[in-house]
Design goal:
It contains 12 helices and 8 strands. By secondary structure, the protein is an alpha+beta fold.
Length: 300
């Protein structure tokens, strides 16, 4: 989820269960704290893509970080109470992020597998707006504030549950229409009935849209899976390594720019986005010594 949605979710959730201002502040801080890894962008896009939603979003952070405010506020509020609120805030952040297709590496650094429910988009108005409206109206209708918070949280819970059901229906319908070995379905922005899909054969990917309302499957593109010498060379680039660490369905395409060969890697689960999002380009030149990488660029 986007940082503003995390702030609003922390605010609505905490004010719905306590009136203690210190506990609300603790909850707010820890509902956004995992995204401190956004600072990795300052170093490089490659480092950000490799380590965002890893350690600060993991099980170890969930268990250990709440100890800090619990120790600080132990005498004033009690260790267990503060620990519980910080733990709950971190857990809420991690859960909301897992609903995205971006994924969370919750077991890092022991296991770098990314887990994702792929139900909501990173900026999802059906999550953001109920939280925002509940907060705004609670300022005017203070006596009904808790009721508004509960309604907003209930709506989001039902929304995520409905998306899980619709995703299952989309995947089932896709299997009836497209023959493949592997099927993956991903949410499209602001859409309930249309889902982006990636289907895989042994040597080919198919991408497109499955429309469960219109009962149709639209094929967007087909990509052959290649592993020739120049593609293997492109994997020496830090940009490609970072993308491959992140990607679920990476595929490489080759084209020429004069004497330079360009290898463009793309992550197909985001193939519906414009402007070559989640792609890595590597410019390779053939020399007497062999293939030489002369430039690379990662776009997310």
């Amino acid at each position: 989820m986007d940082p503003i949605s995390h702030v609003l979710s922390g605010l609505v959730f905490s004010k719905g269960i306590t009136k203690d201002k210190i506990l609300i502040i603790v909850f707010l801080i820890f509902s956004v704290f995992p995204d401190i890894d956004l600072l990795l962008k300052i170093h490089s896009t490659e480092m950000f893509l490799s380590y965002h939603r890893t350690i600060t979003h993991g099980i170890f952070a969930l268990l250990l970080l709440p100890i800090i405010p619990a120790l600080i506020l132990n005498r004033k509020l009690g260790f267990l109470k503060v620990y519980f609120f910080a733990f709950l805030a971190l857990g809420l952040h991690i859960f909301l992020d897992i609903t995205n297709q971006y994924g969370v590496k919750v077991l890092a650094p022991l296991d770098w597998t990314s887990y994702a429910l792929s139900l909501t988009f990173i900026v999802d108005p059906y999550v953001f707006l109920p939280l925002l409206l509940a907060f705004i109206f609670s300022l005017k209708i203070r006596k009904q504030a808790k009721f508004l918070y509960i309604i907003a949280l209930l709506f989001i819970t039902l929304y995520i549950g409905a998306k899980a059901y619709l995703k299952g229906e989309a995947k089932y319908f896709l299997k009836q229409k497209v023959e493949a070995h592997q099927y993956r379905v991903y949410p499209l922005p602001n859409d309930f009935c249309r889902w982006w899909f990636v289907a895989k054969f042994s040597d080919e990917y198919i991408t497109g849209v499955v429309d469960i309302f219109g009962k149709r499957v639209y094929i967007d593109s087909k990509y052959k899976i290649k592993n020739d010498e120049i593609i293997l060379k492109s994997k020496d680039s830090s940009s490609v390594r970072a993308l491959l660490d992140f990607a679920k369905h990476p595929v490489a395409e080759i084209y020429q720019e004069g004497e330079i060969t360009v290898v463009r890697w793309r992550e197909l689960s985001y193939g519906f986005l414009p402007d070559d999002r989640f792609t890595a380009k590597v410019w390779i030149k053939k020399t007497f010594e062999g293939l030489k990488i002369i430039n690379s660029k990662l776009r997310i």
